[in-house]
Design goal:
Elements (H helix, E strand, L loop, with lengths): L8 E5 L6 H14 L4 E5 L3 H5 L8 E5 L2 E4 L6 H8 L2
Parallel strand pairs: 1-2
Antiparallel strand pairs: 1-3, 3-4
Length: about 80
Amino acid sequence: SQKIASQALTIYYDHQCPYVYQNVEMLKKYCAEHAVSASFIHVDTLQKAKALPGVFNNWGVFYKGQFETVNLLLDIKTLERILKK
């Protein structure tokens, strides 16, 4: 459906790419420092990946209930663009 009920920033991620862990930690820090309500959900099985509400490719990012991106390595600039919506 490409939609979720939560209005908070919601990031589904896995560890298939070796850089994902580093990016997740950077994004968590940014969200904490900027008071951004966020959920980070680790997808660690194929079953979980198939049950996700949208496209998934190491990342699946939702904001205000809407699908935003599967950008391979979500960076701060992309996150800020998403949060301005």
